Amino acid sequence: MAILSFRNIAHYDKMIDTHIIDSLYNVYVTTSLLQIKSIGPKLVPFFKSVSVYFVLLAEQPSLLTACFKCLPIISLIIFVLLHGINLSKEYAFSRRILTGLVFSCIGDALLVWPNCFTAGMCMFAIAQIMYIFAFGFKPLNLTLGTVLYMSCSIVIYALMPGLNGILAIGVPIYTVLLTTMAWRAISRVQFFGELWTWTKLCSCIGSICFVISDTLLGFHYFHSPLPYSQISIMLTYYAAQLGIALSAVDSKNNSNIRVPTNKS
């Protein structure tokens, strides 16, 4: 009888845990759908400015070219601001994403002029550092980090023959920062231990697009010219920044959501 009672209690506890998880999941899905529906109109300026940039697609350095290139990132900066931001601890993630977008925007403007490439790369390095601190180092996921850093080493090795002067130091450093950012963003997507969020998936996809964009840029400038380079580089870049900006939508709530687990 004691064994039977224990089994009934264990079964009852399992039913309660399943019910709680199902309830939390339903609440999360409903909330996510409402969030996605509400952010659509706020992203209209971003998609319009991206369309304008690709329609014009000016390759000659000019102030007008810099303005059109920066407009999509400015739209994302406004998007993050519209979701609320202040100096409290719960908005630390959003502040860091916002700061990263601001430095990215400055970097975009500088990269319009070839002689400002190093300065532009420095701005993007700061942006990557802000994104790294936003994404944090939990969970660590050393296996993923090892794979990404090995890939990073291969890219650096391939680009080194085309790097001269300060770029021979700056490009490898930036590549490591970019890889670290991708490692931290991808590691945030956990299917066990906490409720999975679509905004974390956005930052994951965004970081991958960032790696693709900057890898294309690196090989185009320092290895061998690529066909349709400007379109492919900028398309993946804007997708990257969009994904990262979207990660700020529910960032202040993510740390408070956990799936109940049995503890012995």
In DSSP terms, counting alpha (H) and pi (I) runs of 4 or more, how many helices? Answer: 10
Helix content: over 70%
Total discrete domains: 1
Radius of gyration: 22 Å
pLDDT < 50 runs, ≥5 residues: 1-7, 255-264
Strand share of the residues? under 5%
| Quaternary structure type | single chain
**Quantity of strands, as a count:** 0
Order of helices and strands: HHHHHHHHHH
Molecular shape: globular
The SS-based structural class is mainly alpha
* Gap between N and C termini: 23 Å
Give average pLDDT, whole number: 87
Largest sheet: none
Explain what the structure shows.
This protein has ten helices and no strands. It is mainly alpha-helical. It has one domain. The N terminus and C terminus are likely disordered.
Secondary structure elements and pairings:
Blueprint lengths: L1 H38 L4 H13 L6 H20 L9 H19 L6 H19 L6 H18 L7 H21 L10 H25 L6 H18 L4 H4 L10
Helix pairs in contact: 2-3, 3-4, 3-9, 4-5, 5-7, 6-7, 7-8, 8-9
Enzyme class: hydrolase
Subcellular location: Membrane
InterPro entries: TMEM86B-like
Quick recap of the structure?
This protein is mostly helical.
